[in-house]
Design brief:
123 residues; alpha+beta; Beta-lactamase Inhibitory Protein, Chain:B, domain 1; five-stranded antiparallel β-sheet; 5 strands
Length: 123
């Protein structure tokens, strides 16, 4: 009789502990841009050269074809910390005239964080 009660209590407590744990996945969206590839984009490059280096832009502006926006977004499941990175390339005709990108220090910190995500060690 006591063994049955212990088993029931153990089963109920195990069920209670496991049902409280909810797995939250990492949400990763957009173009992951390596900082070395971003640093290779220079004024005077053509659209096809930029597309070769960075890929197809995530946001295609219907009203202004001279602007390409690359956005990367990562929301980690457990601590809900959000990493967001934006790179915007401006064109005049077919040539790059301006690049808005994160600083090298910020990009290095984000790449260090993302290395843990790629290896499956997100804390």
């Amino acid at each position: 009789m006591i063994k049955q009660i212990v088993r029931i209590v153990a089963a109920v407590s195990l069920f209670g502990l496991t049902s409280a744990c909810v797995y939250r996945i990492n949400i990763q969206q957009g173009n992951y841009l390596n900082q070395s590839a971003v640093n290779q984009v220079k004024p005077g490059m053509t659209m096809s050269q930029v597309r070769y280096l960075l890929g197809t832009p995530l946001v295609a502006n219907l009203f202004d074809k001279s602007r390409w926006d690359y956005v990367y977004y990562l929301k980690r499941g457990y601590n809900r910390h959000v990493d967001e990175r934006r790179v915007t390339v401006f064109f005049d005709g077919n040539k790059v005239v301006k690049i808005d990108k994160p600083s090298d220090a910020l990009a290095a910190a984000q790449e260090k964080t993302l290395a843990g995500v790629k290896n499956g060690r997100v804390y």
